[in-house]
Fold this protein.
Amino acid sequence: MSPTVATSNVPRSDQPSTRRRKKPARRRRVWRWIALSVVVVLLAAGGTAWWMYNHLDGNIKGVDINKALGDDRPEKLPTSGQNLLVLGSDSRAGAQNKELGGGGSVSGARSDTAMVVHIPEGRQQAVAVSIPRDTLVTRPECTKADGSKTPSANRVMFNSVYSQVGPACVVKTVEKMSGVRIDHYLEINFAGFKDLVDAIGGVTVDVPQDIHDTSSGLDLTAGPHKLDGTQSLAYVRTRHGIGDGSDLGRIGLQQQFLLALLSEVKSQDLLGSPTNSYKIANSATKSLTTDSGLASLKSLAEFARSMNGVDPSSMETIMLPVAYDKQDPNRVVAAQPQAGDLWKAIRKDGTIPESAKKSPATGGSAS
């Protein structure tokens, strides 16, 4: 067979077929469009995520507690335990806060609810100590936000310190009365509390007794109830519908509600619902004020992760042991030696003795 005949039926290597040349070109164009589309989607998602982060981060207001208090403070815990002061502010600032607070001509803000949350070393079991708002305390000398000084004063109602001097002075007052170093401070107002409860879909509480509060309009029978934001706010603030009408009667309700709220948040599949997660985060941050150490989304997230091992069902709630004031039965004072023993245990990150959990004044509710 002639070589010319044999080679005439075989495509030459220097003459590739048109089909082989065009197919890779089409494939490359398809993949370029796919890649471009992915980049556009990623950029859009990234931009949205960045906007969401900035929005939530910008919601948080910070107070430089360390600068305001200086060096005259209790020593930090010798362990990795931490103490957080949580305040529920009754500020009427803004239309929503004013409406939720009952309107009227009340100005300024007070610490409507105050809890020292002790998180021991190991972050397994937290303790929340409620300070009755009617407790008479010695307010130390404090510096206001404008730099002016407020002199020390005796027999001052605890909840008035906030309105008179500001949150840094509340921290200083708690530190002076307890000897406990407050590591972090967190405050939420009426509107923020209501919106947070509504964002998580309500909170179920087991009402211990019938509550008929004509002041707030709260009307609940004993037993389990799922409360929305407005009802929840009335529940933790009611004082006329339970006990003797004093602040002491409602502290048990506040502590009960706190545990129910924490349990509800922890039970929700936040990772499985990004939309719901953002809604809750937005509600939780937009009415939030913290110390400067927590005043960012990153810092708050890190702090929350450090508490992930704390089970709300095992969290202990205690009212600061108080006795009725001898001069004014409508006020209370820290009961000794119970209060001293309680603060001492927290200072040492130790076990709180049972005797330090009992309050001579109970507000007509069970001790």
About this structure: Residues 18-59 form the longest helix (42 residues).
